[in-house]
Amino acid sequence: MAEEILRLERVCKTYNVGLPSEAEVLHDIDLELDHGEFLALMGPSGSGKSTLLNIVGLLDRPTSGRLLIKGRDTGLLHDNELTHLRGHTIGFVFQHHLLISAFTARENIMMPMLADRGFPSAEIAARADHLLAEVGLGRFGNNLANNMSGGQQQRVAVARALAMNPDLVLADEPTGNLDSKSADAVFELMRRVNRESGTSFLLVTHNLDLARRCDRIIEVVDGRIAQH
Ligand SMILES: Nc1ncnc2c1ncn2[C@@H]1O[C@H](COP(=O)(O)OP(=O)(O)OP(=O)(O)O)[C@@H](O)[C@H]1O
C-alpha cells in the first residue's frame, strides 16, 4: 500500500465563467497526506480551499494535474468507479451539519450504510449505535436531529462521516458555527478518532488555535500552497 493516502501533483482548476474569460482558481498544487496524518488547511476567503476539498473528495475533477488516492490515479477512473472509491474511502463533515432534521441521530448515521448495497443490513443499526457511543451520544440515538444542540448535531455528522470506516475525513470548517467550547469538543473528538483508528483528516479551519493542534498546517493563498 502507498505510504500516503493522498497525493496531488501539479493540480490546476479553472472554472469557465463565460467566454472569453476563464478563472484559474488552483495553480500547480502539490500536496501529500500520509496515512494517519491530521492536516489543517487555512487561507483567506476565496483562496480556493473548498475547490481543493471538492477535488480531493472526488466531487469535482482537476482541469490538469494528477490526484492519487491510496496510490490510484483517479484521472483514470470512470464516474462510477470514483463514486465507489469516494463512498469507501472518504467521509465528509461540513460547516452546516447537513443532517436530515426529521430523522433521528441513529437514522442519520445509518444513511451512508443503507445507501451502500454492499453493507450487511443486519449490522447497520448496531454500527450506528457503536458510532453514537464513540462520539459521546450513546443515549441520544432516538433524538430527532432537529432537537439536538449545534455541537451534538456536529458530533452526529462526524459519526455519519465515519460510518463507512473511511481512510480520510474531509472536514470543511466543521466548527465554524459552534461556540468555542463545542468547537473544542468536536475538534478533540476528531483528534481522538484520528489517534485511535488512524483515520487521516484534512481540516479546513479559520481557527489558528485549532490548526496549531494539528500535525501540520498548510495555507492556500490565491490558489497556491503558501507554506508546507
Ligand atoms: N463553480 C464555480 N464557478 C466559478 N467560480 C467559482 C466556482 N466555485 C468557486 N469559484 C471561485 O473560486 C474561487 C475560490 O473559491 P473557494 O470556494 O474554493 O474558496 P474558499 O477558500 O473555500 O473560500 P471560503 O473560505 O470563503 O469558503 C473564488 O473566487 C470563487 O468565486
From TrEMBL:
Under InterPro entries, the record lists:
AAA+_ATPase (IPR003593), ABC_transporter-like_ATP-bd (IPR003439), ABC_transporter-like_CS (IPR017871), ABC_transpr_LolD-like (IPR015854), MacB-like_ATP-bd (IPR017911), P-loop_NTPase (IPR027417)
> What is the top-level taxon of the source organism?
Bacteria
Any Pfam family from its record, for instance, is ABC_tran
Which family would the database say this protein is a member of? Answer: Belongs to the ABC transporter superfamily.
Name the CDD domains on file. ABC_MJ0796_LolCDE_FtsE (cd03255)
**Protein's name according to its UniProt entry:** ABC transporter ATP-binding protein
Q: What does this protein do?
A: Involved in beta-(1-->2)glucan export. Transmembrane domains (TMD) form a pore in the inner membrane and the ATP-binding domain (NBD) is responsible for energy generation.
Domain ABC transporter, chain residue ranges per copy: 6-228
SMART domains of this UniProt entry?
A: AAA (SM00382)
Give the molecular function GO annotations: ATP binding
Keywords tagged on the record: ATP-binding, Membrane, Nucleotide-binding, Translocase, Transport
